[in-house]
């Protein structure tokens, strides 16, 4: 790949030039050869370390298989010593991997950053020259393939190494020890705890992990207490329906809740279905009409803005339709999650955390109201009112096309945030119990396991919606940054201040969505 993508690729690019062939070759080929050789060094060192981890894991796998075949395992007298020796080797390998990571960390950061920026630039340029400049298109495509390969293979090598290193503890815990062999069992438990604490992560100068998430999420841009009575009183506690009441009201206003409760079951309401269909139909038809007829001719980046408007309208409308399609099944799944969290709350109340549950209920409801005001009212409604008022045509339809899908999508996002906050607070309570009292450790571990299951189910419910929303926000952010930067760099703010202000407004909204989603997810996982 080094020979084909770099050497042959740059030679081909140089040959199709009419002048400066040798100079072009020297400027572009030699630096990329140096960088490529250094990257291959990283790959080889990672593979060597990964193979050692695989050897250790192979030995643990053998012992795990033996333990499944023998009733009174282990049979060797030096079993504990072997386990400790393997764990010691694993610890040394993790230390070596971290030292290797620190040696190449700055290089990885620069390489990933450069590849990412150049990839975005080449893909963007290709959109505008693909029809008339074949030679440049060849250069762009060749560069894109090279950057994608570099990014992919760096991530693959790092992810495979970390996976192999962190898999050891799973294999060790899979070894079945006879209950009468207390020393061996204790040595396995102690070794597993050491491995859990010794987790390997490959980073770029400790700014971000180099893993599979990097391929999609890498980018550069991206409360006071409520007065509550101190006495224990369940009548002061908010139910889940009361905590979620602001969101429920918003759902009903937007036509996102076409159901009614009948004998304890969710059934469709004919009136609410009509309301939902009217909203979605008007929005979809208006979007299709605007995308088909929208033009912007008096600006150099008219095609970019047209592309962004098309992406914004179609992308957000698609997410909105998806939310409506899965609304019933998701509503039932969320009800099941609430039942599981309520079970956890009953156990926490037995441990004397009634006041804490009451307090967090009020705090979370207050946070949901603040998010609805900030995101839906300020960033969406007021922001789109401004964008519509500075337009010369179709102001009402323009406002409806952009504000309604964003209101639907952001309301579902806020629902996701609120559920994550509810679960995070339960994890905090469990962690406080572990830190202060070890008498109920089995009960606490059982609650922790239930909460992890609930978190994974919540992630599954919102996973596809989050993927589409993040992809949309990311692409729109890149486009808005490009447009705003063009206006600033070429001194066009006075003549095109409207375009600049709308791009800035959209960028703030997208950046907030990406930032807050990452913040809530990270804090929940950390807890």
Compute the average pLDDT. Answer: 76
Order of helices and strands: HHHHHHHHHEEHHHHHHH
User: Main β-sheet: number of strands, strand sense, barrel status?
Assistant: 2 strands, antiparallel
SS class: mainly alpha
Cα radius of gyration in angstroms:
28 Å
Beta-strand segment tally: 2
Domain count, please report it: 2
Protein described:
The chain has 527 residues and is mainly α. The chain folds into two domains: 2-217, no CATH class; 237-526, no CATH class. Helix content is 79%, strand content 2%. The protein has 16 helices and two strands. It has helices spanning 2-15, 21-69, 79-129, 134-166, 168-173, 182-197, 212-217, 240-243, 245-254, 270-293, 302-325, 327-350, 354-389, 395-436, 441-489, 497-526; strands at residues 259-262, 265-268. A two-stranded antiparallel sheet has the order 1-2. A hairpin with a 2-residue loop joins β1 (259-262) and β2. α12 packs parallel to α14 (395-436). The longest helix has 51 residues, at 79-129. The model is unreliable at 217-235 (pLDDT under 50).
List keywords for this structure.
16 helices, cell membrane, flat, Gustatory receptor, 527 residues, transducer, mainly alpha, membrane, 2 domains
């Amino acid at each position: 790949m080094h020979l084909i993508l770099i050497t042959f690729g740059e030679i081909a690019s140089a040959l199709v030039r009419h002048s400066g062939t040798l100079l072009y070759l020297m400027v572009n080929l030699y630096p990329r050869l140096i960088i490529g050789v250094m990257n291959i060094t990283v790959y080889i060192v990672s593979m060597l370390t990964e193979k050692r981890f695989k050897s250790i894991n192979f030995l643990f796998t053998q012992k795990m298989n033996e333990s499944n075949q023998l009733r009174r395992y282990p049979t060797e007298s030096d079993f504990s010593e072997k386990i400790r020796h393997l764990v010691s080797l694993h610890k040394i390998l993790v230390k070596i991997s971290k030292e290797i990571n620190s040696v190449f960390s700055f290089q990885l950061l620069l390489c990933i950053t450069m590849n990412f920026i150049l990839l975005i630039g080449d893909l963007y340029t290709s959109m505008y020259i693909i029809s008339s400049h074949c030679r440049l298109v060849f250069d762009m495509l060749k560069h894109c393939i090279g950057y994608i390969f570099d990014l992919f293979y760096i991530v693959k090598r790092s992810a495979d190494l970390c996976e192999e290193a962190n898999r050891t503890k799973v294999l060790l815990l899979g070894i079945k020890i006879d209950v009468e062999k207390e020393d061996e069992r204790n040595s396995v438990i102690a070794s597993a705890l050491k491995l859990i604490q010794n987790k390997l992560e490959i980073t770029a100068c400790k700014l971000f992990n180099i893993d599979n998430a990097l391929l999609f999420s890498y980018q550069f841009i991206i409360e006071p207490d409520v007065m509550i009575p101190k006495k224990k009183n369940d009548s002061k506690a908010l139910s889940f329906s009361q905590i979620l009441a602001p969101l429920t009201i918003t759902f009903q206003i937007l036509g996102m809740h076409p159901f009614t409760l009948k004998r304890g079951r969710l059934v469709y309401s004919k009136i609410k279905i009509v309301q939902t269909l009217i909203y979605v139909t008007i929005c979809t038809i208006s979007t299709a009409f605007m995308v088909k007829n929208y033009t912007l001719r008096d600006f150099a980046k008219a095609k970019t803005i047209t592309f962004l408007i098309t992406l914004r309208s179609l992308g957000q409308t698609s997410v909105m339709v998806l939310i409506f399609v899965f609304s019933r099944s998701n509503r039932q799944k969320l009800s099941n999650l609430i039942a599981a969290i309520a079970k956890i709350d009953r156990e926490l109340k037995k441990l004397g955390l009634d006041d804490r549950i009451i307090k967090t209920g009020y705090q979370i409801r207050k946070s949901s109201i603040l998010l609805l005001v900030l995101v839906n009212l300020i960033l969406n409604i007021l922001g789109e009112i401004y964008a519509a008022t500075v337009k010369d045509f179709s102001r009402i339809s323009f406002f409806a096309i952009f504000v309604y899908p964003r209101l639907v999508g952001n309301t579902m996002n806020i629902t996701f945030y609120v559920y994550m906050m509810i679960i995070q607070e339960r994890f905090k309570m469990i962690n406080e119990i572990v830190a202060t009292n070890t008498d109920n450790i089995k009960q606490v571990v059982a609650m922790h396991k239930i909460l992890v299951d609930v978190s994974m189910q919540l992630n599954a419910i919102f996973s596809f919606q989050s993927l589409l929303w993040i992809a949309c926000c990311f692409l729109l952010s890149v486009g808005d940054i490009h447009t705003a930067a063009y206006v600033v760099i070429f001194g066009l703010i006075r003549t095109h201040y409207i375009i600049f202000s709308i791009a800035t407004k959209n960028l703030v909204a997208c950046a907030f969505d990406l930032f807050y989603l990452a913040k809530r997810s990270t804090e929940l996982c950390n807890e």
